[in-house]
Amino acid sequence: MTGRQRLTLTLVADGDLLMRDRQRQSNVLESDLFIRGSVLRGALADAWIHVYGTGGAFRDVFTGMTRFLGGYPRVPTRDDDGRLRRTMTVPRTVFADKNSREVIDFAVRDDTDTAGYSRRSGLASFDREQNSASLVDEPLSYARQRIGTLQDGTGLIGSEDDGKLFTEVVVASGAQFEVDIEGDPTSLDQLRGLLNDPGVERFLTIGRSRTILGMTRVAEMDVSPVEQDEPIKRSRHALYFATDAILLNERLEPVVPDGRWLEVLADLEPGTVAAVDQGNLAERRIAGWSAVHRGPKPVDIAVERGSVLSFNCEDGDALQSIAESLSSGVGWRTAEGFGVVHLDHPIHDANWHVHYEQQG
Q1: If we measure between CA atoms, which residue out of 111, 171, 85 comes closest to residue 353?
Q2: What is the CA angle 164-293-161, rounded to 5?
Q3: What CA–CA distance (Å, rounded) separates 116 from 112?
Q4: Are the CB atoms for 114 and 106 separated by under 8 Å?
Q5: How many angstroms separate the CA atoms of 245 and 304, rounded?
Q6: Given pLDDT bands bounded at 50, 70 and 90, which one contains residue 75?
Q7: In the chain, pLDDT over 70 holds for what percent of residues?
Q8: Do the strands 28-30 and 165-171 form a parallel or antiparallel pair, or are they unpaired?
Q9: Cβ neighbour number for residue 233 with a 10 Å cutoff
Q10: Which secondary-structure segment (H or E) carries 223?
């Protein structure tokens, strides 16, 4: 990973966004508050083709070692000073006291009794400098309704029935997202050149129904070095799944991560990892739509973003090996942003606030 850089983009929605897998059996679609890496890569590749075609550096940028990690909305800071801060998925180890509303992250605690607490979900705002985190319940989306129509005479394109009423919960226009792309300096410079082209904005669309939704533009760009996670010196540690991770064994069967999985991943001796807690793992199905084949993609089973795997390990060299094994992503489809996993993410030690929580 030496020499790799991270390109961070601030995307502004100039229209409503609907980011969701196709669900042929439902007439209600609720947008994710997350731009998946595969969605980001597809949007940028489509814009590149419209501006430059498929020649030149297209293959190097979009089928090489570049990782499109996706990203989350930005929300106002706790100080309400006009600044915006990036959000992330609340770890599944975060719970709130049912009476006092105190928020606690149980990821690396010895006491894991959550009786009297309720698990929190959604988005969190995290300030590394202040070591503080806040639960977010901003009104970033709203419901809209429309009448569905077939997009062609065969019914192969789209999943709507003619005349059927659809409810879509979309991300409201004006929302800002911060997304990351990792790659070599040359590939990232080529992407910056694309995004600096004045004509690219009319082709940069994200999500579903892109003829009427999904218009975005790049407001900011920043480049920084890629840094590896540093394990904290203690006996209890945690893996935080920042994005969905598609983990398969040699028979292509879904894998639930455990201690042995982690030891194999980092090439460690059996027994190096102990006291593994899988109770804060969840799974989700990853679906998609192939514009080429005009049909649904195969469904993948993934460890859901926000999941946490806690474990004991006091071997410093082993922890460094774990951090190195996570640095380029784990599992399948890592170029599309799947499998971003952090060791000892600092949010697990943050002081939690409820400033953003919507009242009433």
Answers
A1: 85
A2: 5
A3: 12
A4: yes
A5: 7
A6: confident
A7: 83
A8: parallel
A9: 9
A10: strand 216-225
Distance CA 273, CA 258 (A): 9
In total, the chain counts a number of residues equal to 360
What does pTM read for this prediction? 0.86
Lookup: tokens for 5: 């850089």
Judged on CB neighbours under 10 Å (0-12, 13-18, 19+), 95 is middle
Q: What are the pLDDT digits (tens) for 39-59? A: 899 889 888 888 888 877 888
Only one residue has tokens 């042929």, namely 24
Alpha-carbon distance 210 to 193, whole Å? 24
**Residue owning tokens 């000073």:** 81
Widest CA span of the chain, in angstroms?
63
Q: What is the pLDDT of residues 296-317, one digit of tens each?
A: 777 889 999 999 999 999 999 9
Q: What is the CA radius of gyration of the chain?
A: 21
Identify the band that residue 22 occupies on the pLDDT scale cut at 50, 70 and 90: low
Is residue 349 within 8 A of residue 108, CB to CB? The reply is yes
The answer to whether 318 touches 233, Cβ cutoff 8 Å, is: no
Amino acid symbol at 106: F
Question: Is residue 356 classed as helix, strand or coil in its secondary structure?
Answer: strand
**Residue with structure tokens 């309720």?**
118
Task: Walk across the sheet containing 117-119 and list its strands.
Answer: 103-105, 94-97, 117-119
Residue 291: in which H helix or E strand, if any?
none
Asked if residue 311 lies in contact with residue 259, where contact means CB atoms within 8 angstroms, the answer is yes
Contact 318, 309 (CB under 8 A): no
Count Cβ atoms within 10 A of the Cβ of residue 80 and give its class: 0-12 exposed, 13-18 middle, 19 or more buried: exposed
- C-alpha closest to that of 351 among 111, 126, 76, 136: 126
Helix (H, G, I), strand (E, B) or coil at 54: coil
